[in-house]
Design goal:
With 553 residues, the chain is α/β, with parallel strands linked by helices. The protein is 31% helix and 24% strand. It contains 17 helices and 25 strands. The radius of gyration is 23 Å and the shape is globular.
Length: 553
């Protein structure tokens, strides 16, 4: 295998099935839109705004708006293969714009408006986006970023009569006919990674990626035309976009979209809307535990389980949540580069089996690979490692991205072995059926190398989170002149008792000396991405005063 193209194609081939031979229920998202346009009054999208006002879009109404938005795009000169950006938040208009672009074979570049202007400017330039659909509240900011005026901006306002805004233009646009043909290889999304240093990388996902991953997610979690999911995560991220919008659409199910996550309405809304499944990140589980909400009515209404991934889940958090609420947490794992999810815990595990896989290995298992992909643990040379040996989590399959956009160096690094290299460290253990249950121990780049020994951050996080007086906490590897790196704990205290000695003592009792934190720094918040992933490298500097300290037993 010589060329990068060959390596990428191999990384998109799972269990000998090439992406071209993988079975897809639709040849394009346009074909799915056409098929479901006949569902007339069945709800696809139910939306709650920030004031808890409820709006409902049937399949027929939603698809009608998508067809008008597709016409609007074509009149603005957007053609198949072009890219559009969205400066938006959770709103039906955003979802309409996504599907309209996909209908005509265009690609969406979602902007995370919590990012700084420099990163947004880079994304808009790097992606070569042709047009920006911009919410009114972000308009001045986007105008300032695009000072050159070389990009078309369409203002999106909740005032449906606002002149020259999205809704006025939409109402005036005729219905575009559904295009025919195969769009599976058309680019659908460019999602920019939220790295802590350097420019973000644009992950290019094709329509085949969205369909393959969405169909498998639906099958795994029992999502049928009779199901209803709920979205509380940002739709600019693949979890909010793929899991809770593309997935239910592909099977003719419904989705409840929330402007934002609100703890006080979480279970109430699930009960009211008869939601079956919701996808969250671990930080939201922690928020729900902090408020101790009442889940009884939600469970009685048929709420089945919670999908949880896209961030570090600890054994303690999942045990405490399940014990308190009695709701199964189906842990999973994936990356933007693999569309969203690559694996999940099986939904039908017995209570004993769930406890075993979630609690007995020091890390909660991320589960078993989805049918559309395969996974392995590889060493630095690409050799597949046996059970229980730690290495890099790698995957292959129809959900693996096309490439990093305009970034040949990153592509060479990611596809070195003919697998997609995640950058995450992990291991696996087979069950008695021969199914590999995978575990993640942390980001390879976030491994703490103390005295030449690699330490997994998630293992240490687990202990810190259980220490007395800790509401939430993470370990941070900081520069140290004696050991290269040393272990610190960044902690949000529970209450006013800032007892660092008690925390350090607890950690020393449950961890060997070289793994135990030597310093505690208290904080009001932990550095996370918009989906709850810890950004440890952003806070190394708060431990700078201990650089020259040699910690002894």
């Amino acid at each position: 295998m010589n060329t990068l193209t060959e390596k990428i194609h191999q990384a998109q081939t799972a269990n000998g099935i090439t992406p071209e031979k993988h079975q897809y229920p639709f040849p394009s998202i346009a074909a799915a839109l056409e098929a479901y346009s006949m569902l007339s009054d069945k709800p696809y999208l139910i939306y709650y705004d920030e004031h808890n006002n409820r709006f409902e879009y049937s399949y027929s109404l939603f698809i009608e708006k998508v067809r008008r938005a597709a016409t609007l795009l074509t009149k603005r000169g957007v053609k198949r293969g072009a890219r559009i950006a969205t400066a938006a938040h959770n709103h039906p208009d955003t979802i309409i714009q996504y599907f309209a672009a996909w209908m005509i074979g265009a690609c969406v570049v979602p902007l995370n408006m919590t990012e700084d202007d420099n990163r947004l400017s880079y994304i808009l330039e790097n992606s070569e986006a042709q047009i920006v659909f911009c919410r009114e509240e972000y308009y001045a900011r986007i105008e300032n970023i695009l000072a050159s005026g070389q990009m078309d901006i369409v203002k999106v306002s909740d005032n449906s009569s606002a002149k020259d805004c999205f809704h006025e233009l939409l109402d005036a646009a005729p219905l575009l006919e559904f295009p025919s043909g195969n769009f599976l290889d058309d680019d659908a999304l460019i999602v920019y990674t939220s790295g802590t240093t350097g420019n973000p990388k644009g992950v290019v996902l094709m329509q085949r990626n969205l369909i393959a991953d969405g169909v498998d997610i639906a099958g795994w979690h029992g999502i049928t035309p009779y199901s209803r999911m709920m979205c509380v995560l940002p739709v600019h991220h693949v979890n909010g976009c793929i899991v809770t919008h593309v997935t239910p659409f592909l099977v003719g199910a419904s989705v409840v979209l929330n402007r934002k996550f609100q703890t006080e309405y979480f279970f109430e809304r699930i009960a009211c809307e008869k939601v079956d499944v919701v996808s969250v990140v671990p930080t939201l589980l922690a928020f729900l535990l902090d408020k101790k909400a009442d889940a009884k009515t939600a469970i009685e209404a048929g709420f089945h389980h919670i999908i949880c991934g896209a961030g570090p889940l600890t054994c303690d958090l999942v045990r405490t949540f399940e014990d308190f609420y009695g709701i199964p947490v189906i842990h999973g794992y994936g990356l933007s580069e693999t569309t969203c999810y690559t694996c999940f815990l099986p939904v039908d595990l017995s209570d004993e089996e769930r406890t075993y896989w979630l609690q007995d290995y020091g890390f909660p298992s991320i589960g078993v690979p989805l049918p559309c992909n395969e996974m392995a643990i590889c060493d630095t040379l690409g050799n597949i490692l046996p059970e229980m040996e730690r290495g890099e989590i790698c995957s292959r399959g129809a959900n693996v991205m096309r490439e990093y956009f305009n970034n040949p160096k990153a592509n060479e690094d990611a596809f070195t072995f003919g697998w997609f290299r995640s950058g995450d460290e992990g291991f696996y253990k087979n069950d008695d059926q021969g199914r590999p249950f995978f575990f993640i121990t942390g980001r390879i780049k976030e491994l703490i190398i103390r005295g030449g020994v690699n330490l997994a951050p998630l293992e240490i996080d687990e202990v810190i989170s259980r220490a007395p007086g800790v509401k939430a906490g993470i370990c941070v590897g900081f520069e140290n002149n004696f050991y290269g790196e040393e272990v610190g704990a960044l902690v949000i205290p529970s209450g006013d008792n800032l007892n660092s000695d008690a925390i350090l003592e607890f950690c020393s009792q449950h961890l060997p000396f070289h793994k135990a934190p030597k310093v505690v720094v208290f904080t009001d918040s932990l550095p996370v991405t918009s989906t709850g992933k810890y950004q440890r490298n952003k806070v190394k500097h708060v431990f700078a005063e201990w650089k020259d300290v040699q910690f002894r037993r």
